[in-house]
Write a structure and sequence with these properties.
mainly alpha, 5-stranded antiparallel sheet, 19 helices, 7 strands, globular
């Protein structure tokens, strides 16, 4: 609902609500959402009671006129496609993410040396998190993804009942970040849900873990790579990261054996017939580990240790922690999986997936980016081509599909 008010009525409303006239006059009468503006006016007292100055609040909301419709759309979006496990890993652990990680390890070596010495967290783990969270910062350059954090969180607090409590808490923290001077309002940008910077911290986590690693007086995870990587290292360190220990091991399962749930020592797992992939010994047989078989017994199996649980403090999902660990190992040069994921097709390299997207686009099936990531748009395009070609419509980015496209 649009609001049209005279300057006199605006001034009256501002006095009653405690909102500065300058804030409301900055919103064009033709574009300001009346209900949203009333919510902002009411939230001002909540912010003030939480230690936010009136100047900070007014500065933060100066250009926030209406809700962000795209934020609400993303909040409502529930993907119809449930990705198989190999799809998740193929989009995150691939030749380009590994090559870029190694290049970043060389470029930022002096800082990684200092961060590793200070926090005790392996640099390759930090690089893998950087890749997973923002594609080594590339996502921060995408204006279609990055949004005004204050507006995003205010939108969720005002219009999304499920996330309102979370959003209000994060919004107060975001205002405290702005008030601290670590970043100005024009650069306080993040995802639709308020995750910020190269390593994608929500405001409350930023307040707990943010580090000024480069010593310039600001904890700037948006523009300072040392600050962003140190902040990620600090989170892992404070949650119990064990220096010099791995996250886990790929293992080989003996055929026809059942295994207990829960954690056992590596020695006891060995006694049950599990062996480390590539026939390597376990460095410490007394370490406690849990068996994970995310793709069933036909796929790769892992014994994961305490550091795996610490990685889940970043994102509480087994797949996330496993992807970080596997990517970190490949960046470090330890090699990929011995037993690959149980795919029903021939896998493509990252460059081949880009070629697949380009060829689908050339034939009018695809209109997205040639980014090598197979999402909903790519799968729909593959299925459309498969239907035309008389193939099974499974949407898989396979060599079988690419080979047929190359022949056209």
């Amino acid at each position: 609902m649009l609001v049209r008010k005279t300057a006199t009525r605006l001034a009256s409303f501002a006095a009653a609500a405690g909102l500065s006239l300058a804030l409301l006059l900055s919103a064009s009468p033709a574009s300001a959402d009346a209900g949203f503006q009333r919510w902002i006016a009411g939230f001002r007292s909540t912010a003030t009671q939480s230690g936010i100055s009136k100047a900070t609040f007014d500065r933060a909301f100066r250009n926030v006129r209406d809700v962000d419709a795209e934020v609400l759309e993303k909040a409502r979006y529930q993907p119809e496609f449930t990705a198989p496990v190999w799809d998740y890993f193929d989009n995150r652990v691939h030749d380009q993410s590994v090559a870029t990680g190694r290049a970043m390890a060389r470029k930022w070596k002096p800082w990684l040396d200092r961060i590793e010495a200070r926090f005790g967290v392996d640099r390759h783990i930090l690089l893998a998190i950087w890749s997973m969270e923002s594609n080594y910062g590339e996502i921060l350059k995408n204006d279609q993804v990055m949004r005004n954090v204050v507006r995003s969180l205010a939108t969720l607090a005002y219009a999304d009942k499920r996330r309102a409590k979370f959003a209000r808490t994060q919004l107060i923290s975001a205002l405290k970040i702005l008030q601290s001077g670590d970043i100005d309002e024009s650069h306080l940008m993040g995802s639709w849900a308020g995750a910020m910077g190269h390593t994608q911290f929500i405001p409350t986590s930023y307040q707990h873990y943010a580090v000024d690693m480069d010593g310039n007086g600001k904890r700037d995870i948006w523009n300072s790579i040392p600050d962003a990587l140190a902040t990620a290292a600090n989170l892992l360190h404070k949650n119990g990261w064990q220096t010099g220990r791995t996250w886990g091991y790929e293992v080989t399962l003996p055929a026809g054996r059942k295994f207990p749930a829960g954690s056992l020592s590596l020695a006891k797992w060995q006694g049950l017939g599990l062996t480390r992939a590539r026939s390597k010994p376990f460095p410490s047989s007394s370490d406690i580990a849990e068996l994970k078989v995310p793709d069933g017994r036909q796929g790769p199996a892992f014994l994961v240790t305490k550091n795996f649980s610490v990685l889940k403090r970043y994102n509480n999902a087994d797949k996330y922690a496993l992807a970080v660990g596997l990517l970190a190992d490949e960046i470090a040069g330890y090699g990929g999986l011995v037993r690959d994921w149980n795919r029903p097709f021939t896998k493509l390299s990252f460059e081949e997936k880009q070629e697949l997207q380009q060829r689908l686009s050339a034939y009018g099936y695809y209109d997205g980016k040639f980014d090598g990531k197979i999402g909903q748009g790519s799968r729909a395009a593959i299925m459309a081509f498969q239907a035309k070609a008389g193939m099974e419509q499974d949407g898989h980015p396979s060599m079988e599909v690419l080979s047929l496209l190359r022949k056209r």
